[in-house]
Amino acid sequence: MTSDCIFCKIAAGEMDSTMVFEDERCVAFEDLNPQAPTHILIIPKEHISSMDEAESNHSELLGHLLLTGAKIARERGFAGRGYRTVINTNSAGGQTVFHLHVHLLGGRQFVFPPG
Hints:
globular; alpha+beta; HIT family, subunit A
């Protein structure tokens, strides 16, 4: 945990959020600035600044984050219609909070290529 990281504080239960899921490795909560009808952030409890900082020993954790997104999409009933998972990496990649996180977006049609 990094003391000044907002996502570390959410994962530790020190900041309020609308929690969707929690297990021993990650938490998922509603995004405060949703870009789709469903916009959930899935974060590891371990502080990893970005995908660029992830290492080979994080492989299982990274897979777990994506599988958690799929589980949430199925439980919320929008998996069959489709959804998008996004990991923004570093500033030019659109990352604004430097704690690795997966965006789970659903509930509307998405176009490709994205912005």
